[in-house]
Amino acid sequence: MSTITVKVEFGGGLELLFGNKRVHSISLPSFVPADNTIAPSSPQNSETPQLAKSDDPPLPANGPNQDPVKGLEETKEKRLDVQYLMHYLRSRLLTERPELFMDGDTVRPGVLVLINDTDWELEGEGTYEISDGDDIVFISTLHGG
Amino acid sequence: MASCGNPIADDSALMLSRPRFDKGKHCVKCKLNLGNIVIRHAVYCRDCFTPLVIVKFRRALEPHVNANAGTSKRPKLKASGSLVLGFSGGLGSAVLLDLVYKSYFAGRPPTDENGDPRGGINHPRNVSVWTSCAVCYVEVSSAIPEAHERTEEMRSALASYPNLKFIPLRLEDAFDESWWCRMTGNPDMSQLTLELGKDGLPTEGLNLAHSSNTLSPKDALRAFLTALPTPTAVSRAIQVLIRLLMFFTAQFHGASHLVLGSSLTTLAVSLVSCVAQGGGHAIREEFQEEWPPGLSPGVERGGSVRVVRPLRDVTMKECAAFAWWNGIRVPGRPRLTRVITGIPGLTKDFVVRLEKDYPSTVSTIARTCAKLEPKGTSVGECWFCYSHLQGGLADWKARISIRSHPNLKVVERLASSSPADSSVHPDQTSRLPPLDTHLCYSCITMFTSRSSRKSSFAPPLIHHQDMPLPRWVKPQDAEEAIPVSKNGELWVRSRQSEKECRESIADFLLPDN
């Protein structure tokens, strides 16, 4: 199973919600559940991808070799995207006040997201498929004047 | 997304989301680079975005620099005094500080081959527009429960901007006699208070009194905020105190300009919440205002001060991107807890959400409010917030107020709500005019509105029968307070007791039997 390493940065005060740490390096599987389900974390390392448990949809053994459309539909999976990353951050790294980070399935209004130094509105927002080495920044604009 | 039908029954009823940008992904300015940011449906690359923000900043500030506009289309910039920058630690303040410093105070200008200043003599970096710049920060931790001091954090944030003076203030300075004495040079230590009813809130008449209590400035501030009736009133009061503390400080330091870091988004929030709190008459001052010399009683030093918001055309999103891409450190601003934000907090939530889905509406709010003209003329200044005082307020309130009640028990209960024990001598009370005729409508609302929800603001530290007022609240001269009609007649208003009122209409009253 291939993994993707992504660098996540927080600014504008959002780092306070993530253990006061601005930069995180996260490794995630290249194929993730389509419903953004996050498996419970293991005690050893919370920033590494977790193996699916028995009650979760089985992960493909050799994902890249399958017919991507047919395989994904059968297992209800999708390629790792920004939306899944946000759910992962909320489940695993957020230490307090989740409502200040996310609102439903997207970021809270007032949070600017940059994907490789580009506004995520130009990259398809939550549907942007993350590649290895991407740099994603979440900046809060709610500090006012 | 908006819909015109039932999406459960009909899949096509759900309207498709509108694309975030109008044209392609290339920059609309240079048309060469791929875009990096979307600003109100327009795409800009990073190289074009930063100069765009700088141009907006200069376009909003520079027309107000010179005391007189003059006839030249591009006059040489020269202010009549120094510059004071209001710094809250927030995003807009941090961006404004960086722009002001780099544009006007960043050191010696580069020269060309001939040794002349590059860019011409009118370029901001070559002309000393202001004599000096001071950054003013108001510490509000005394007013916010469980907040910690941030003055030193702000001081350290300014370390990367040498040549700027740091002026730390505290919110409780508004109640500090030594601070006021320093501002005015007036050794008068008296302080006015508002009488409170049995419910601990100001009475309807807003009766003034001389205070005989000696509270510390911090305790006076807390007593003042605790006696305010609603969370909205607390938010507004803090805002007014900060604004006036900065104004008096700017005037004391001989500043000709006070610049604030309100972005377009925060400006839209303040405009809507200002109208919602009854401040529509002063809506033009939310954009820009000028305080002439001698406006404040006792403050003789300094000339006029122009309050300018140079980021009023820059949205919060643009500020965030500008700060990130230029490595600007944003210390952050203490967020008022939800319980004391009231209408401003609700308005901010609404406008920020609106901006996310409909980014052009924020500028529409600002443009529409800029066209508004208050009805009627100003008859003076509000004694509390120094905004324009509308004429005819007392008459209007009398017309909309219910003055009688069919239930006698209610009447008796209201009549007995006056303070049982006052720390003020009756003779002193009668000499002071009531405050309600000298306050603007939004300040009257701030003191007298009642909320059905119990305020969960910090419990009062000290129980008092009166509410301390800021030091600048002083009865104006009697001659200045007398309104003059168009034909030169002088009108003097004085409060009548109930007995005097009854005697004046005795001939028209029906007998009680």
From TrEMBL, chain A:
<dbReference type="InterPro" id="IPR016155">
    <property type="entry name" value="Mopterin_synth/thiamin_S_b"/>
</dbReference>
<comment type="function">
    <text>Acts as a sulfur carrier required for 2-thiolation of mcm(5)S(2)U at tRNA wobble positions of cytosolic tRNA(Lys), tRNA(Glu) and tRNA(Gln). Serves as sulfur donor in tRNA 2-thiolation reaction by being thiocarboxylated (-COSH) at its C-terminus by the MOCS3 homolog UBA4. The sulfur is then transferred to tRNA to form 2-thiolation of mcm(5)S(2)U. Prior mcm(5) tRNA modification by the elongator complex is required for 2-thiolation. Also acts as a ubiquitin-like protein (UBL) that is covalently conjugated via an isopeptide bond to lysine residues of target proteins such as AHP1.</text>
</comment>
<feature type="modified residue" description="1-thioglycine">
    <location>
        <position position="145"/>
    </location>
</feature>
<comment type="pathway">
    <text>tRNA modification; 5-methoxycarbonylmethyl-2-thiouridine-tRNA biosynthesis.</text>
</comment>
<feature type="region of interest" description="Disordered">
    <location>
        <begin position="33"/>
        <end position="76"/>
    </location>
</feature>
<dbReference type="InterPro" id="IPR012675">
    <property type="entry name" value="Beta-grasp_dom_sf"/>
</dbReference>
<keyword id="KW-0819">tRNA processing</keyword>
<dbReference type="Pfam" id="PF09138">
    <property type="entry name" value="Urm1"/>
</dbReference>
<keyword id="KW-1017">Isopeptide bond</keyword>
<dbReference type="GO" id="GO:0002098">
    <property type="term" value="P:tRNA wobble uridine modification"/>
</dbReference>
<dbReference type="GO" id="GO:0034227">
    <property type="term" value="P:tRNA thio-modification"/>
</dbReference>
<dbReference type="InterPro" id="IPR015221">
    <property type="entry name" value="Urm1"/>
</dbReference>
<comment type="similarity">
    <text>Belongs to the URM1 family.</text>
</comment>
<dbReference type="GO" id="GO:0005829">
    <property type="term" value="C:cytosol"/>
</dbReference>
<dbReference type="GO" id="GO:0032447">
    <property type="term" value="P:protein urmylation"/>
</dbReference>
<keyword id="KW-0833">Ubl conjugation pathway</keyword>
<keyword id="KW-0963">Cytoplasm</keyword>
<feature type="compositionally biased region" description="Polar residues">
    <location>
        <begin position="38"/>
        <end position="51"/>
    </location>
</feature>
<protein>
    <recommendedName>
        <fullName>Ubiquitin-related modifier 1</fullName>
    </recommendedName>
</protein>
<feature type="cross-link" description="Glycyl lysine isopeptide (Gly-Lys) (interchain with K-? in acceptor proteins)">
    <location>
        <position position="145"/>
    </location>
</feature>
From TrEMBL, chain B:
<comment type="pathway">
    <text>tRNA modification; 5-methoxycarbonylmethyl-2-thiouridine-tRNA biosynthesis.</text>
</comment>
<keyword id="KW-0819">tRNA processing</keyword>
<keyword id="KW-0963">Cytoplasm</keyword>
<protein>
    <recommendedName>
        <fullName>Cytoplasmic tRNA 2-thiolation protein 2</fullName>
    </recommendedName>
</protein>
<dbReference type="InterPro" id="IPR019407">
    <property type="entry name" value="CTU2"/>
</dbReference>
<dbReference type="GO" id="GO:0016779">
    <property type="term" value="F:nucleotidyltransferase activity"/>
</dbReference>
<dbReference type="InterPro" id="IPR014729">
    <property type="entry name" value="Rossmann-like_a/b/a_fold"/>
</dbReference>
<dbReference type="GO" id="GO:0032447">
    <property type="term" value="P:protein urmylation"/>
</dbReference>
<comment type="similarity">
    <text>Belongs to the CTU2/NCS2 family.</text>
</comment>
<dbReference type="GO" id="GO:0005829">
    <property type="term" value="C:cytosol"/>
</dbReference>
<dbReference type="Pfam" id="PF10288">
    <property type="entry name" value="CTU2"/>
</dbReference>
<dbReference type="GO" id="GO:0000049">
    <property type="term" value="F:tRNA binding"/>
</dbReference>
<dbReference type="GO" id="GO:0002143">
    <property type="term" value="P:tRNA wobble position uridine thiolation"/>
</dbReference>
<comment type="function">
    <text>Plays a central role in 2-thiolation of mcm(5)S(2)U at tRNA wobble positions of tRNA(Lys), tRNA(Glu) and tRNA(Gln). May act by forming a heterodimer with NCS6 that ligates sulfur from thiocarboxylated URM1 onto the uridine of tRNAs at wobble position. Prior mcm(5) tRNA modification by the elongator complex is required for 2-thiolation. May also be involved in protein urmylation.</text>
</comment>
<dbReference type="GO" id="GO:0016783">
    <property type="term" value="F:sulfurtransferase activity"/>
</dbReference>
